[in-house]
Amino acid sequence: MKKIPVHRVDLIFEKITCKEIFEKVMEAKPDEIIQSVIDSGLKGRGGAGFPTGLKWQFAAREKNDEKYIVCNADEGEPGTFKDREILDMVPEKVFCGMAIASRAIGAKIGYIYLRGEYKFLVPKLEERLKDFHGLMKKMGHPFTIHLRLGSGAYICGEESALFESIEGRRGEPRNKPPYPTKEGLFNKPTCINNVETLVYTVMIQKYGAMHFKEMGTKDSRGSKVFSVSGDTPKAGIFELELGMSVKEFVEEFGDGDTKAVQVGGAAGFCVPRKRFDETIIGFEGVPTGGSMKLFNSSRSMYNVLHNYLDFFAEESCGQCTPCRVGCQQLLKGIEAVKKGEKSIKYLDELVKLAATMKIAAKCGLGQSVGNAFSSIVDNFKEEIIY
Amino acid sequence: MMITADSIQDMVERHGRTRDALLPILQEIVSEKNYLSDEDMVEVARALDISAAAVFGTATFYSFLDSRPKGKYVIRVCKTISCSMKGKNSVLSTIEETLKIKIGETTADRKFSLLETNCIGWCHKAPAILINDEPYTDLTPKKVTEVLREYIKNR
Fold it and tell me: What is the ipTM metric for this complex?
Protein backbone atom coordinates (compact mmCIF):
# COMPACT_ATOMS: atom_id res chain seq x y z
CA MET A 1 0.00 0.00 0.00
CA LYS A 2 1.32 3.40 -1.00
CA LYS A 3 1.60 5.70 1.97
CA ILE A 4 1.83 9.44 1.68
CA PRO A 5 3.13 11.70 4.40
CA VAL A 6 1.18 14.84 5.27
CA HIS A 7 1.58 17.02 2.22
CA ARG A 8 -0.09 20.41 1.92
CA VAL A 9 -1.79 21.44 -1.29
CA ASP A 10 -3.14 24.79 -2.47
CA LEU A 11 -5.86 24.27 -5.06
CA ILE A 12 -9.15 25.09 -3.37
CA PHE A 13 -8.17 28.51 -2.02
CA GLU A 14 -5.85 29.50 -4.89
CA LYS A 15 -6.98 32.81 -6.34
CA ILE A 16 -7.80 32.37 -10.00
CA THR A 17 -9.69 34.17 -12.76
CA CYS A 18 -12.81 32.14 -13.30
CA LYS A 19 -13.57 33.93 -16.57
CA GLU A 20 -10.50 32.41 -18.27
CA ILE A 21 -11.44 28.93 -17.17
CA PHE A 22 -15.02 29.31 -18.21
CA GLU A 23 -13.92 30.56 -21.65
CA LYS A 24 -11.96 27.35 -22.03
CA VAL A 25 -14.96 25.32 -20.91
CA MET A 26 -17.25 27.04 -23.41
CA GLU A 27 -14.94 25.95 -26.23
CA ALA A 28 -14.94 22.32 -25.10
CA LYS A 29 -17.73 19.86 -25.87
CA PRO A 30 -19.81 18.67 -22.90
CA ASP A 31 -18.46 15.12 -23.42
CA GLU A 32 -14.89 16.38 -23.20
CA ILE A 33 -15.60 18.21 -19.94
CA ILE A 34 -17.18 15.11 -18.44
CA GLN A 35 -14.32 12.92 -19.64
CA SER A 36 -11.76 15.18 -17.99
CA VAL A 37 -13.58 14.90 -14.66
CA ILE A 38 -13.80 11.10 -15.06
CA ASP A 39 -10.10 10.94 -15.94
CA SER A 40 -9.13 12.94 -12.88
CA GLY A 41 -10.59 10.27 -10.58
CA LEU A 42 -12.37 12.93 -8.50
CA LYS A 43 -14.83 11.48 -6.01
CA GLY A 44 -17.47 13.47 -4.15
CA ARG A 45 -16.00 15.47 -1.27
CA GLY A 46 -19.15 15.54 0.87
CA GLY A 47 -18.28 12.17 2.36
CA ALA A 48 -20.07 9.53 0.29
CA GLY A 49 -17.41 9.59 -2.44
CA PHE A 50 -19.41 8.89 -5.58
CA PRO A 51 -17.27 9.44 -8.73
CA THR A 52 -18.12 12.98 -9.84
CA GLY A 53 -17.51 12.45 -13.56
CA LEU A 54 -19.90 9.48 -13.64
CA LYS A 55 -22.57 11.48 -11.85
CA TRP A 56 -22.24 14.19 -14.49
CA GLN A 57 -22.36 11.59 -17.25
CA PHE A 58 -25.56 10.02 -15.90
CA ALA A 59 -27.22 13.43 -15.69
CA ALA A 60 -25.97 14.40 -19.15
CA ARG A 61 -27.45 11.27 -20.72
CA GLU A 62 -30.96 12.02 -19.45
CA LYS A 63 -33.11 13.50 -22.17
CA ASN A 64 -34.94 16.38 -20.56
CA ASP A 65 -35.15 20.10 -21.25
CA GLU A 66 -35.34 20.81 -17.56
CA LYS A 67 -32.32 19.78 -15.49
CA TYR A 68 -30.80 21.21 -12.33
CA ILE A 69 -27.40 21.72 -10.76
CA VAL A 70 -27.51 21.76 -6.98
CA CYS A 71 -24.65 22.78 -4.73
CA ASN A 72 -24.94 21.07 -1.37
CA ALA A 73 -23.80 23.67 1.15
CA ASP A 74 -25.77 22.18 4.04
CA GLU A 75 -22.58 21.40 5.90
CA GLY A 76 -23.90 19.92 9.14
CA GLU A 77 -21.62 17.04 10.01
CA PRO A 78 -20.12 17.71 13.45
CA GLY A 79 -16.50 18.70 12.97
CA THR A 80 -16.89 19.91 9.37
CA PHE A 81 -16.53 23.60 8.60
CA LYS A 82 -14.54 23.74 5.36
CA ASP A 83 -17.47 24.55 3.05
CA ARG A 84 -18.18 27.70 5.05
CA GLU A 85 -14.58 28.80 4.55
CA ILE A 86 -14.67 27.97 0.83
CA LEU A 87 -17.90 29.92 0.30
CA ASP A 88 -16.48 32.79 2.32
CA MET A 89 -13.07 32.95 0.64
CA VAL A 90 -13.67 31.83 -2.97
CA PRO A 91 -17.42 31.93 -3.73
CA GLU A 92 -16.88 32.63 -7.43
CA LYS A 93 -15.02 29.34 -7.78
CA VAL A 94 -18.08 27.51 -6.43
CA PHE A 95 -20.33 29.33 -8.90
CA CYS A 96 -17.84 28.57 -11.68
CA GLY A 97 -17.95 24.86 -10.81
CA MET A 98 -21.73 24.95 -11.04
CA ALA A 99 -21.51 26.70 -14.41
CA ILE A 100 -19.08 24.05 -15.70
CA ALA A 101 -21.47 21.33 -14.51
CA SER A 102 -24.38 23.12 -16.18
CA ARG A 103 -22.47 23.18 -19.46
CA ALA A 104 -21.59 19.50 -19.06
CA ILE A 105 -25.09 18.20 -18.35
CA GLY A 106 -27.20 20.85 -20.09
CA ALA A 107 -28.85 22.66 -17.17
CA LYS A 108 -30.04 26.25 -17.06
CA ILE A 109 -30.85 26.60 -13.38
CA GLY A 110 -28.76 25.98 -10.30
CA TYR A 111 -29.48 26.09 -6.59
CA ILE A 112 -27.15 26.59 -3.66
CA TYR A 113 -28.67 25.14 -0.50
CA LEU A 114 -26.86 26.89 2.34
CA ARG A 115 -27.43 25.81 5.92
CA GLY A 116 -29.30 28.37 8.03
CA GLU A 117 -26.39 28.52 10.47
CA TYR A 118 -24.36 30.20 7.71
CA LYS A 119 -26.95 32.88 6.93
CA PHE A 120 -24.39 35.56 7.75
CA LEU A 121 -22.73 34.70 4.40
CA VAL A 122 -25.84 35.61 2.38
CA PRO A 123 -25.19 39.33 1.68
CA LYS A 124 -21.71 38.54 0.35
CA LEU A 125 -22.90 35.59 -1.73
CA GLU A 126 -25.77 37.59 -3.24
CA GLU A 127 -23.41 40.37 -4.22
CA ARG A 128 -20.97 37.96 -5.85
CA LEU A 129 -23.84 36.17 -7.58
CA LYS A 130 -24.76 39.45 -9.31
CA ASP A 131 -21.25 39.64 -10.80
CA PHE A 132 -21.43 35.98 -11.76
CA HIS A 133 -24.76 36.37 -13.54
CA GLY A 134 -23.29 39.33 -15.41
CA LEU A 135 -20.42 37.15 -16.54
CA MET A 136 -22.78 34.37 -17.66
CA LYS A 137 -24.73 36.88 -19.72
CA LYS A 138 -21.57 38.22 -21.31
CA MET A 139 -20.40 34.71 -22.15
CA GLY A 140 -23.77 33.86 -23.67
CA HIS A 141 -24.31 30.93 -21.32
CA PRO A 142 -27.85 30.92 -19.94
CA PHE A 143 -27.36 29.78 -16.36
CA THR A 144 -28.93 31.25 -13.23
CA ILE A 145 -28.14 30.33 -9.62
CA HIS A 146 -30.72 30.66 -6.83
CA LEU A 147 -29.67 30.77 -3.21
CA ARG A 148 -31.80 28.84 -0.72
CA LEU A 149 -31.38 28.57 3.03
CA GLY A 150 -31.87 25.66 5.36
CA SER A 151 -33.45 26.12 8.77
CA GLY A 152 -31.47 24.03 11.21
CA ALA A 153 -32.00 20.44 10.08
CA TYR A 154 -28.93 18.19 9.71
CA ILE A 155 -30.89 15.69 7.63
CA CYS A 156 -31.27 18.22 4.82
CA GLY A 157 -27.66 17.52 3.86
CA GLU A 158 -28.95 14.16 2.60
CA GLU A 159 -29.50 14.87 -1.09
CA SER A 160 -33.13 13.80 -1.45
CA ALA A 161 -34.11 15.48 1.84
CA LEU A 162 -32.41 18.61 0.48
CA PHE A 163 -34.62 18.46 -2.63
CA GLU A 164 -37.70 18.06 -0.47
CA SER A 165 -36.63 21.12 1.51
CA ILE A 166 -36.11 23.26 -1.61
CA GLU A 167 -39.53 22.12 -2.79
CA GLY A 168 -41.02 23.50 0.43
CA ARG A 169 -41.58 20.31 2.39
CA ARG A 170 -40.31 18.57 5.50
CA GLY A 171 -36.74 17.42 4.90
CA GLU A 172 -37.55 13.72 4.77
CA PRO A 173 -35.35 11.56 2.53
CA ARG A 174 -36.92 9.81 -0.45
CA ASN A 175 -36.63 6.19 -1.48
CA LYS A 176 -33.77 5.42 -3.87
CA PRO A 177 -33.83 4.56 -6.71
CA PRO A 178 -34.67 6.66 -8.61
CA TYR A 179 -31.38 8.47 -8.07
CA PRO A 180 -31.12 12.26 -8.42
CA THR A 181 -29.51 12.11 -11.87
CA LYS A 182 -32.77 10.56 -13.09
CA GLU A 183 -35.36 12.15 -10.77
CA GLY A 184 -33.99 14.76 -8.41
CA LEU A 185 -35.12 18.30 -7.70
CA PHE A 186 -38.73 18.82 -8.86
CA ASN A 187 -38.42 15.22 -10.10
CA LYS A 188 -36.13 16.36 -12.92
CA PRO A 189 -32.62 15.08 -13.69
CA THR A 190 -30.37 16.73 -11.13
CA CYS A 191 -26.68 16.81 -10.51
CA ILE A 192 -25.97 17.51 -6.84
CA ASN A 193 -22.39 18.12 -5.70
CA ASN A 194 -20.68 19.25 -2.55
CA VAL A 195 -19.14 22.75 -2.42
CA GLU A 196 -15.57 21.45 -2.40
CA THR A 197 -16.22 18.95 -5.22
CA LEU A 198 -17.41 21.77 -7.48
CA VAL A 199 -14.27 23.81 -6.82
CA TYR A 200 -12.09 20.81 -7.69
CA THR A 201 -13.86 20.50 -11.04
CA VAL A 202 -12.75 24.08 -11.73
CA MET A 203 -9.15 23.29 -10.84
CA ILE A 204 -9.26 20.16 -13.01
CA GLN A 205 -10.23 22.38 -15.96
CA LYS A 206 -7.39 24.75 -15.08
CA TYR A 207 -4.54 22.31 -14.57
CA GLY A 208 -5.82 19.21 -16.36
CA ALA A 209 -7.05 15.84 -15.11
CA MET A 210 -3.57 14.34 -14.75
CA HIS A 211 -2.35 17.03 -12.38
CA PHE A 212 -5.12 15.99 -9.98
CA LYS A 213 -4.84 12.28 -10.61
CA GLU A 214 -1.12 12.21 -9.88
CA MET A 215 -1.83 13.10 -6.27
CA GLY A 216 -3.20 10.66 -3.73
CA THR A 217 -3.63 6.92 -4.17
CA LYS A 218 -5.37 4.53 -6.55
CA ASP A 219 -8.62 4.67 -4.57
CA SER A 220 -8.36 8.24 -3.35
CA ARG A 221 -7.09 10.55 -6.05
CA GLY A 222 -6.12 14.13 -5.49
CA SER A 223 -6.33 16.25 -2.39
CA LYS A 224 -9.01 17.16 0.11
CA VAL A 225 -9.84 19.94 2.52
CA PHE A 226 -9.75 18.75 6.13
CA SER A 227 -11.49 20.37 9.06
CA VAL A 228 -9.26 19.72 12.08
CA SER A 229 -10.57 20.19 15.60
CA GLY A 230 -10.55 18.75 19.11
CA ASP A 231 -7.38 18.25 21.13
CA THR A 232 -4.92 19.77 18.70
CA PRO A 233 -2.64 22.78 18.78
CA LYS A 234 -3.42 23.33 15.08
CA ALA A 235 -7.20 23.46 14.77
CA GLY A 236 -8.36 24.80 11.43
CA ILE A 237 -8.72 24.11 7.73
CA PHE A 238 -5.99 22.31 5.79
CA GLU A 239 -5.90 21.08 2.22
CA LEU A 240 -3.87 17.86 2.16
CA GLU A 241 -2.98 15.17 -0.33
CA LEU A 242 -5.08 12.05 0.21
CA GLY A 243 -3.53 8.76 1.22
CA MET A 244 -1.77 9.60 4.49
CA SER A 245 -2.14 7.30 7.47
CA VAL A 246 -3.83 8.40 10.69
CA LYS A 247 -0.40 8.07 12.32
CA GLU A 248 1.11 10.62 9.96
CA PHE A 249 -1.87 12.86 10.48
CA VAL A 250 -1.55 12.64 14.27
CA GLU A 251 2.20 13.33 14.12
CA GLU A 252 1.35 16.57 12.32
CA PHE A 253 -1.76 17.63 14.22
CA GLY A 254 -1.77 15.76 17.56
CA ASP A 255 -0.91 17.23 20.94
CA GLY A 256 1.42 14.35 21.82
CA ASP A 257 -1.25 12.52 23.79
CA THR A 258 -3.80 11.57 21.11
CA LYS A 259 -5.70 8.42 22.00
CA ALA A 260 -8.29 8.43 19.22
CA VAL A 261 -9.26 10.26 16.05
CA GLN A 262 -12.85 10.46 14.90
CA VAL A 263 -12.66 10.48 11.11
CA GLY A 264 -15.77 11.69 9.24
CA GLY A 265 -17.69 13.25 12.11
CA ALA A 266 -20.52 11.77 14.15
CA ALA A 267 -21.42 9.61 11.13
CA GLY A 268 -17.80 8.49 10.75
CA PHE A 269 -15.40 6.09 12.43
CA CYS A 270 -13.36 6.23 15.58
CA VAL A 271 -9.75 5.15 15.06
CA PRO A 272 -7.93 4.18 18.29
CA ARG A 273 -4.19 4.68 18.81
CA LYS A 274 -3.34 1.04 18.12
CA ARG A 275 -4.77 1.38 14.59
CA PHE A 276 -3.18 4.73 13.68
CA ASP A 277 -0.40 3.19 11.62
CA GLU A 278 -2.49 0.77 9.56
CA THR A 279 -5.40 3.12 8.84
CA ILE A 280 -5.34 5.18 5.67
CA ILE A 281 -7.44 8.34 5.48
CA GLY A 282 -9.29 7.84 2.22
CA PHE A 283 -11.71 5.55 0.46
CA GLU A 284 -9.49 2.48 0.94
CA GLY A 285 -9.41 3.04 4.69
CA VAL A 286 -11.64 5.45 6.55
CA PRO A 287 -13.45 7.89 4.26
CA THR A 288 -14.21 11.41 5.42
CA GLY A 289 -16.07 14.48 4.31
CA GLY A 290 -13.22 16.30 6.00
CA SER A 291 -14.05 16.10 9.69
CA MET A 292 -10.99 15.09 11.74
CA LYS A 293 -11.46 15.28 15.47
CA LEU A 294 -8.66 14.43 17.86
CA PHE A 295 -9.18 13.20 21.40
CA ASN A 296 -6.41 13.01 23.98
CA SER A 297 -6.26 10.76 27.01
CA SER A 298 -8.08 13.26 29.23
CA ARG A 299 -11.32 12.67 27.27
CA SER A 300 -13.99 10.16 28.21
CA MET A 301 -15.08 8.26 25.12
CA TYR A 302 -18.39 7.64 26.88
CA ASN A 303 -19.03 11.38 26.81
CA VAL A 304 -18.02 11.51 23.15
CA LEU A 305 -20.38 8.68 22.21
CA HIS A 306 -23.17 10.10 24.35
CA ASN A 307 -22.80 13.46 22.62
CA TYR A 308 -23.00 11.83 19.17
CA LEU A 309 -26.04 9.74 20.06
CA ASP A 310 -27.80 12.74 21.55
CA PHE A 311 -27.08 14.51 18.26
CA PHE A 312 -28.53 11.69 16.15
CA ALA A 313 -31.58 11.22 18.37
CA GLU A 314 -32.38 14.91 17.82
CA GLU A 315 -31.54 15.06 14.15
CA SER A 316 -33.22 11.82 13.00
CA CYS A 317 -36.12 12.95 10.81
CA GLY A 318 -38.33 10.34 12.44
CA GLN A 319 -39.66 9.00 9.18
CA CYS A 320 -38.38 5.41 9.43
CA THR A 321 -38.61 3.31 12.57
CA PRO A 322 -35.10 1.79 12.65
CA CYS A 323 -33.56 5.25 12.87
CA ARG A 324 -36.22 7.03 14.94
CA VAL A 325 -36.39 4.35 17.62
CA GLY A 326 -32.86 3.03 17.15
CA CYS A 327 -31.11 6.33 17.91
CA GLN A 328 -33.10 6.77 21.12
CA GLN A 329 -32.58 3.18 22.26
CA LEU A 330 -28.82 3.37 21.67
CA LEU A 331 -28.69 6.55 23.74
CA LYS A 332 -30.84 5.15 26.55
CA GLY A 333 -28.93 1.88 26.32
CA ILE A 334 -25.46 3.29 27.01
CA GLU A 335 -26.90 5.41 29.83
CA ALA A 336 -28.41 2.27 31.40
CA VAL A 337 -25.15 0.33 31.09
CA LYS A 338 -23.21 3.22 32.60
CA LYS A 339 -25.57 3.41 35.55
CA GLY A 340 -25.38 -0.33 36.03
CA GLU A 341 -29.09 -0.79 35.31
CA LYS A 342 -28.19 -3.10 32.45
CA SER A 343 -25.49 -5.75 32.32
CA ILE A 344 -22.32 -5.44 30.25
CA LYS A 345 -23.78 -8.00 27.83
CA TYR A 346 -26.46 -5.48 26.92
CA LEU A 347 -23.78 -3.60 24.96
CA ASP A 348 -23.64 -6.54 22.55
CA GLU A 349 -27.38 -6.18 22.02
CA LEU A 350 -26.88 -2.51 21.26
CA VAL A 351 -24.12 -3.29 18.75
CA LYS A 352 -26.58 -5.66 17.03
CA LEU A 353 -29.19 -2.93 16.98
CA ALA A 354 -26.69 -0.54 15.37
CA ALA A 355 -25.93 -3.22 12.74
CA THR A 356 -29.66 -3.60 12.06
CA MET A 357 -29.98 0.14 11.59
CA LYS A 358 -27.18 -0.02 9.03
CA ILE A 359 -29.22 -2.31 6.80
CA ALA A 360 -32.76 -1.25 7.70
CA ALA A 361 -32.65 2.56 7.93
CA LYS A 362 -33.92 4.45 4.93
CA CYS A 363 -31.08 6.90 4.45
CA GLY A 364 -27.46 7.61 5.23
CA LEU A 365 -28.22 9.14 8.63
CA GLY A 366 -29.63 5.99 10.23
CA GLN A 367 -27.23 3.79 8.29
CA SER A 368 -24.21 5.68 9.64
CA VAL A 369 -25.06 5.79 13.34
CA GLY A 370 -23.54 2.34 13.74
CA ASN A 371 -20.17 3.55 12.40
CA ALA A 372 -19.40 5.72 15.39
CA PHE A 373 -21.30 3.50 17.80
CA SER A 374 -19.56 0.24 16.99
CA SER A 375 -16.10 1.72 16.50
CA ILE A 376 -16.23 3.52 19.86
CA VAL A 377 -17.82 0.63 21.78
CA ASP A 378 -15.43 -1.94 20.26
CA ASN A 379 -12.32 0.07 21.06
CA PHE A 380 -13.25 1.75 24.32
CA LYS A 381 -15.56 -0.75 25.98
CA GLU A 382 -14.17 -0.19 29.46
CA GLU A 383 -14.80 3.56 29.19
CA ILE A 384 -18.40 2.97 28.16
CA ILE A 385 -19.04 0.57 31.05
CA TYR A 386 -17.12 2.06 33.98
CA MET B 1 -42.39 44.36 13.05
CA MET B 2 -46.02 43.27 12.85
CA ILE B 3 -46.74 40.56 10.33
CA THR B 4 -50.09 41.25 8.67
CA ALA B 5 -52.07 39.59 5.92
CA ASP B 6 -50.82 42.38 3.66
CA SER B 7 -47.16 41.80 4.44
CA ILE B 8 -47.61 38.07 3.82
CA GLN B 9 -49.25 38.87 0.49
CA ASP B 10 -46.25 41.04 -0.31
CA MET B 11 -43.87 38.14 0.49
CA VAL B 12 -45.89 35.84 -1.75
CA GLU B 13 -45.62 38.38 -4.56
CA ARG B 14 -41.83 38.36 -4.20
CA HIS B 15 -41.21 34.64 -3.59
CA GLY B 16 -43.94 33.26 -5.85
CA ARG B 17 -47.18 31.44 -5.27
CA THR B 18 -45.81 27.91 -5.57
CA ARG B 19 -45.05 25.40 -2.82
CA ASP B 20 -41.29 25.91 -3.15
CA ALA B 21 -41.82 29.49 -1.95
CA LEU B 22 -43.02 28.18 1.42
CA LEU B 23 -39.67 27.97 3.23
CA PRO B 24 -38.37 31.35 2.03
CA ILE B 25 -41.65 32.94 3.18
CA LEU B 26 -41.57 31.26 6.59
CA GLN B 27 -37.90 32.16 6.96
CA GLU B 28 -38.64 35.78 6.18
CA ILE B 29 -41.39 35.92 8.83
CA VAL B 30 -39.05 34.36 11.39
CA SER B 31 -36.27 36.81 10.55
CA GLU B 32 -38.77 39.66 11.14
CA LYS B 33 -40.19 38.52 14.47
CA ASN B 34 -38.25 35.39 15.48
CA TYR B 35 -41.22 33.03 15.49
CA LEU B 36 -44.29 31.93 13.54
CA SER B 37 -47.71 32.39 15.11
CA ASP B 38 -50.64 30.13 14.27
CA GLU B 39 -52.25 33.10 12.51
CA ASP B 40 -49.13 33.63 10.36
CA MET B 41 -49.19 30.02 9.27
CA VAL B 42 -52.90 30.08 8.42
CA GLU B 43 -52.38 33.26 6.42
CA VAL B 44 -49.42 31.79 4.51
CA ALA B 45 -51.51 28.68 3.77
CA ARG B 46 -54.31 30.85 2.40
CA ALA B 47 -51.91 32.91 0.29
CA LEU B 48 -50.25 29.82 -1.22
CA ASP B 49 -53.54 27.92 -1.45
CA ILE B 50 -52.31 24.91 0.52
CA SER B 51 -53.64 23.44 3.75
CA ALA B 52 -52.70 25.01 7.06
CA ALA B 53 -51.72 21.52 8.21
CA ALA B 54 -49.14 21.34 5.41
CA VAL B 55 -47.66 24.67 6.51
CA PHE B 56 -47.65 23.66 10.18
CA GLY B 57 -46.18 20.23 9.40
CA THR B 58 -43.38 21.77 7.34
CA ALA B 59 -42.60 24.60 9.74
CA THR B 60 -42.38 22.38 12.82
CA PHE B 61 -39.88 20.08 11.10
CA TYR B 62 -37.23 22.81 11.14
CA SER B 63 -35.64 23.80 14.44
CA PHE B 64 -34.99 27.38 13.31
CA LEU B 65 -38.67 27.96 12.47
CA ASP B 66 -39.95 28.35 15.98
CA SER B 67 -43.70 28.30 16.51
CA ARG B 68 -43.54 29.79 20.02
CA PRO B 69 -42.77 33.44 20.79
CA LYS B 70 -39.09 34.25 21.10
CA GLY B 71 -37.14 37.29 22.17
CA LYS B 72 -35.62 39.86 19.83
CA TYR B 73 -32.27 38.09 20.11
CA VAL B 74 -32.23 34.32 20.00
CA ILE B 75 -29.03 32.91 21.50
CA ARG B 76 -28.17 29.42 20.30
CA VAL B 77 -25.38 27.72 22.22
CA CYS B 78 -23.66 24.91 20.32
CA LYS B 79 -23.66 21.73 22.41
CA THR B 80 -21.96 19.35 19.96
CA ILE B 81 -18.73 17.61 20.78
CA SER B 82 -16.00 20.23 20.13
CA CYS B 83 -17.86 23.02 21.88
CA SER B 84 -18.78 20.63 24.66
CA MET B 85 -15.09 19.69 25.06
CA LYS B 86 -13.87 23.27 25.01
CA GLY B 87 -15.96 24.87 27.73
CA LYS B 88 -19.50 25.19 26.42
CA ASN B 89 -20.92 24.55 29.90
CA SER B 90 -19.16 27.51 31.50
CA VAL B 91 -20.23 29.77 28.62
CA LEU B 92 -23.82 28.55 28.95
CA SER B 93 -23.93 29.09 32.72
CA THR B 94 -22.46 32.57 32.29
CA ILE B 95 -25.26 33.44 29.85
CA GLU B 96 -27.84 31.96 32.21
CA GLU B 97 -26.52 33.98 35.13
CA THR B 98 -26.19 37.20 33.14
CA LEU B 99 -29.66 37.07 31.63
CA LYS B 100 -31.33 35.22 34.53
CA ILE B 101 -32.94 32.69 32.23
CA LYS B 102 -32.51 28.95 31.62
CA ILE B 103 -32.38 27.04 28.32
CA GLY B 104 -35.73 27.39 26.54
CA GLU B 105 -36.68 30.58 28.36
CA THR B 106 -37.09 34.21 27.27
CA THR B 107 -36.24 37.26 29.37
CA ALA B 108 -39.19 39.20 30.81
CA ASP B 109 -38.44 42.19 28.54
CA ARG B 110 -38.65 39.82 25.50
CA LYS B 111 -35.16 40.81 24.45
CA PHE B 112 -33.32 37.48 24.74
CA SER B 113 -34.21 33.80 24.32
CA LEU B 114 -31.73 31.07 25.16
CA LEU B 115 -31.53 27.77 23.28
CA GLU B 116 -29.05 24.98 22.69
CA THR B 117 -28.31 23.84 19.16
CA ASN B 118 -26.34 21.20 17.31
CA CYS B 119 -23.04 21.80 15.49
CA ILE B 120 -22.92 25.27 13.89
CA GLY B 121 -19.64 24.73 12.04
CA TRP B 122 -17.08 26.56 14.21
CA CYS B 123 -15.44 23.51 15.84
CA HIS B 124 -11.91 24.91 15.37
CA LYS B 125 -12.92 28.03 17.30
CA ALA B 126 -14.99 26.35 19.98
CA PRO B 127 -16.99 27.11 22.00
CA ALA B 128 -19.30 29.02 19.69
CA ILE B 129 -22.77 30.52 19.80
CA LEU B 130 -25.14 32.22 17.39
CA ILE B 131 -27.02 35.38 18.34
CA ASN B 132 -29.69 35.51 15.64
CA ASP B 133 -27.54 35.04 12.50
CA GLU B 134 -24.27 36.27 13.96
CA PRO B 135 -21.67 33.73 15.11
CA TYR B 136 -19.43 34.38 18.14
CA THR B 137 -16.46 32.07 18.56
CA ASP B 138 -13.51 31.23 20.84
CA LEU B 139 -15.73 32.18 23.76
CA THR B 140 -14.82 32.32 27.42
CA PRO B 141 -17.10 33.39 30.28
CA LYS B 142 -15.42 36.82 30.16
CA LYS B 143 -15.78 37.20 26.40
CA VAL B 144 -19.43 36.13 26.31
CA THR B 145 -20.21 38.57 29.13
CA GLU B 146 -18.74 41.37 27.02
CA VAL B 147 -20.73 40.27 23.97
CA LEU B 148 -23.96 40.21 25.99
CA ARG B 149 -23.19 43.58 27.56
CA GLU B 150 -23.02 45.13 24.09
CA TYR B 151 -26.40 43.67 23.20
CA ILE B 152 -27.94 44.81 26.48
CA LYS B 153 -26.48 48.30 26.17
CA ASN B 154 -26.77 49.16 22.51
CA ARG B 155 -29.72 47.43 21.02
Answer: 0.97
